[in-house]
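Supplementary Note 3. Input sequence used for the single-chain structure prediction.
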Amino acid sequence: MRPVTIVAMLAVVATTAAQCARTSASGRDEHRVTAERGRYLVESIGCGDCHTPKKMGANGPEPDTTRLLSGHPEGEQVPPPPPPKAPWIAGTTWDMTAWSGPWGVSYAANLTPDQNSGIGIWTEQMFVDAIRTGKHMGISRPILPPMPWQALRSLNDEDLKSIFAYLKSLPGVSNHVPDPIQPTATH
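The predicted structure, written as discrete structure tokens, is reproduced below.
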């Protein structure tokens, strides 16, 4: 090969590599911005109020940030809820990770990207479908109260995808949340 041809080929390779690096960096920046928007939405909407276990602090219950958005603690046993007495129809545990009412008992889900106990195997579309339909994974059992999916489904796709990007950016927390309990078993 002639030296001019080799130089031309190296220039093409270098230019292509530089374009790929810029595209890759641009994609990472875009994903970071999307996840930051998701963090903002998750914090503003108050997802951690129910999905983050609490610990007792100097001023009362506070979020346990080591278990951020990991749902009802798997080892925490709660007694059967008291029967609802009008006008009250719902009750919750002290940390708001378990709720009871006419629907039975529901537990806040693990929203971390843990592969076995969180949303690690979920796709972005599954997450969007779950919020839009009120069905676990977009196709399964109903998402139970107090999860406000009916209000969240009005968020646009960009917002829901941002929330998903943020949740997937969190450290995974292995925490198997109990299955919901049917209402007949609670009364």
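DSSP finds five helices and five strands in the chain. Residues 3-185 form one domain.
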